[in-house]
Amino acid sequence: MIRIENLHKRFRRHDAIRGISFTVPEGSAYALIGANGAGKTTTLKILMNILQPTSGAVTLLGVDSRRITPRELNRIGYVSENQQMPERLTVDQYFAYLRPFYQRWDRQLEASLRAQLRLPASRRIGELSHGMRMKMALACALPFRPGVLILDEPFSGLDPLVRDEFMDGVLGQAGETTILISTHELGEIEGVATHVAFLEEGRLLFDEPMDQLRERFRAVRIVFDHPAPLPQQPPPDWFHLAAAGNTLEFIDAQFSARDSHQRLNARFHGIRSIDAEPVPLRTIFTSLARAVRSAA
Amino acid sequence: MIWHIFKKDLRLLWKFALAVAILPFAHAAVRFRIGHEFAEGDVYPALLLLFEIMLYFGAATLTATLVHLDGLVSVRQDWLVRPIRRRDLLAAKLLFLALAVQLPLFLANLAGGLAAGSSLSVVFSAAFTENLYFLFGFALPILAFASLTRNMTEALGGAFVFFIAVVGLEVLFIPLNGGAALGPTTGTGIAWIPQSERMIVYTVAAAAILALQYLRRAAPTSRAVLGAAAALCLLTQILPWRYAFGFETALSGAAPAARSIAIRFDPAAGKYQSPVPDDPAQPRLQMGASGLRRTDYVAPIYLPIRIAGLGAGSLLKIDRASVHLVNPGGKTGQTLSPGTDPLDFSVSGETADGSAPLPYFEPLRIPNTVLERIKNTPVAIRVDYSATLLKLVSTNVFSPYDADRRIPHIGWCQTRLNDSRTTVQLRCLSVGNPPQCLTALLEDPATGVHNPAIQGCLNDYSPYFGRYKPSDPIMVGGANLRFRDEAGLLHYPVGASQLGSAQVVLRSYAVVGHFSRSLVIPSIRLADWAAD
């Protein structure tokens, strides 16, 4: 559905994207996570042919992104936090403007989305709050039942209530639409994303299915029968090491239920117990981000 | 979808578009109110200028706003992710410009021209070509320029920077241009050639930028095209005179009547002395010619010449006279004077006795610094003339009192005595290009005696009509024919007492052809021919 191979993007002397590759499978909800400036928005804009890649191949719906025509755009929904819609048109007028461009615009779906997201028909777009505009952008991206829905930082600046409404709108599409969502609001995608990729300073640090990621990231707690030692040279995939009393805690990025206990027992002596708990996506993200920055 | 996008733009901009569409009609209404411009010192000409400036500024800002509704440089525009065909978008913008700017301008010019008394065919033709001139010379380039900007601030700022850059380059070009900033053809009848070249550059560059921007959103390439176009436009300004005049000569075709014309130096005619002091109340015949290049740093040398072979009813206009020193070996040396003020010198074929050619004193402008060096030394000079031969097309006679006539190829003419009853005011409203040259004089038909003729030339040989300023096709020309001096110092052959039986004679001339002549003077001391 979406394939990116060795993508580079350079803005004058700044390398925004440094050779990333990933594939978004059809029907998935793919989360592209990363800190501000990691290159998420640039990647999505290249995908939409808003920006041109410096090198690399990007295909969307089987078409080179640079060759995207209205035929493909008829099947792609795009919502961005900084999307500029005609401010002096009313909500009603803008929907009326967009309808004829789409071959499969579903007016019933439009009506239900507008009701669900509570968009004021006669209000000018320029008079809408940021949250309302994001909902408006979403409502404009869904009624033609897109095959691909690309969401660029859709949650930024939204209050929790609007986020919920927005996610309800998105989730209504899950399954029949391939969703690519870029965000650093990890809590919002936790229950939605099927795949996740982590982008840091233009590089892709990992790209894998969400369940695999959850499986390999664990918060490990080791209790010793003597004061816990703090390893001088821990493995690179251990983060947030902390020793207190007889307890050593860290995040293991390569945890394996099958052999991690064995490896830990071989590395340390006097282990009384080992606990390994799943970690929230936020912890995974911050762990990786800090590790990359400290390495840099 | 073109109409659909157009309707969206109209919904957003209809108030602005209406305001801009009204401006040419307001301009035409003021022009109609002014009429033949007999009244002096009223506010209407200033209002006319104001509407003109507002029209250009309004059309430019409307165009930029129109483009920015669906901006091309920004990466945030919603339309970029919609299935909107880019050629439809461009076509919708062009349609909007055509209907909101070009059409009102055309209709206003049509109405104004008809109100000025011209026939529908003449008015239609002039309004149409003027409209094309506005489109290719202004609207399309503005559309293309706006497509390279994100918002109005950027558009205005960019235009300012662009303007400063062009002025800067022009300053750099001055030394290449013999000290003249605007190029050798500026202010002459063949200025239309570099103007047309620029028009072609504007059109090609605008088409290229619009295609690049709307079809590929290739802003860096488009900016390079803009820069190249600006450089090319500057280069057209320094188009060498000989090439431009050669082109004009080839275009006008051979003029057999010009072959017999000879120009010779006639020192026996003596030194030039102004017959009367400059009279500021005696303006030249106004033909709407563009401003002359001012050459304050030059000293006038009046060369006495005789021109032979000029037939009756013809007029010779010197478009340029360039003076060169000739080295002892006969080779051309330093150029003393790149040219002459183009309206300064023309010669009529009507001589006093109808046979022998009269002497004329041709003003040559030589830089003071050069003249100081050589003025007392006998030098050999060569004067290269570029000249235009015109023939009499029509002679029209009016009463000096409140005449009102529509004359084909000239326009709607009226006469009126001024309030102090010292001058017959002749004014003609023309639509499109009026005749190339006109002469007007006050004559007593019983005796054939007449006051000095006033002559004016359009000084524009362009084969098509179109101009930036004003944007309407109407031109007001005229002359103030004095017959009485209130101070009693001047005596006129046809005075106030003869005015009852006198008539105004208006002659119009058309271009027959252009030619070049060289006059070599083996030995001349320039100081001998300086004006007193």
Which structural traits does this protein have?
heterodimer, A: about 300 residues, six-stranded mixed beta sheet, four-stranded antiparallel beta sheet, 10 helices, about 30% helix, B: about 525 residues, alpha+beta, seven-stranded antiparallel beta sheet, about 25% strand, globular
Order of helices and strands of chain B: HHHHHHHHEEEEEEHEEEEEEEE
The order of strands across the largest sheet of chain A is 6-7-8-3-9-10
Largest sheet of chain A: 6 strands, mixed
Q: Specify the oligomeric state.
A: heterodimer
Which two chains have the most extensive interface, and how many residues on each?
Answer: A-B, 27 and 18 residues
Structural class of chain B, by secondary structure, is alpha+beta
User: Low-confidence segments of chain B, ≥5 residues, pLDDT <50?
Assistant: 276-296
- Gross morphology of chain A: elongated
- Taking all Cα atoms into account, the compactness measure Rg of chain B is 26 Å
The general outline of chain B is: globular
Order of helices and strands of chain A: EEEHEEHEHHHEHEHEEHEEEHEH
How large, in whole angstroms, is the Cα Rg of chain A?
22 Å
Rounded mean pLDDT of chain B is 85
Portion in beta strands of chain B: 15-25%
Number of strands of chain B: 14
What portion of residues of chain B is helical?
Answer: 25-40%
The percentage helix of chain A is: 25-40%
Short description:
The complex is a heterodimer of chains A (about 300) and B (about 525). Chain A has helices at about 40-45, 70-75, 90-100, 105-115, 130-140, 160-170, 185-190, 210-215, 260-265, 280-295; strands at about 1-10, 15-25, 30-35, 55-60, 65, 75-80, 150, 180-185, 195-200, 205-210, 220-225, 240-245, 245-250, 270-280.
Describe the secondary-structure layout.
The complex is a heterodimer of chains A (296) and B (532).
Chain A: E1 2-11, E2 14-24, E3 29-33, H1 40-47, E4 55-60, E5 63-64, H2 70-73, E6 76-80, H3 91-98, H4 107-117, H5 130-141, E7 148-152, H6 160-171, E8 178-183, H7 186-189, E9 195-200, E10 203-209, H8 210-216, E11 218-224, E12 238-244, E13 247-252, H9 260-267, E14 271-278, H10 281-295
Chain B: H1 2-34, H2 44-69, H3 86-115, H4 120-146, H5 152-173, H6 192-216, H7 219-237, H8 241-252, E1 262-265, E2 298-308, E3 314-326, E4 332-337, E5 346-348, E6 359-367, H9 368-374, E7 379-398, E8 404-407, E9 411-417, E10 423-431, E11 437-443, E12 454-457, E13 474-482, E14 503-524
Antiparallel strand pairs in B: 1-2, 2-6, 3-4, 3-5, 3-7, 7-14, 8-9, 9-10, 10-13, 11-12, 11-14
Helix pairs in contact in B: 1-2, 1-3, 2-3, 2-4, 3-4, 4-6, 6-7
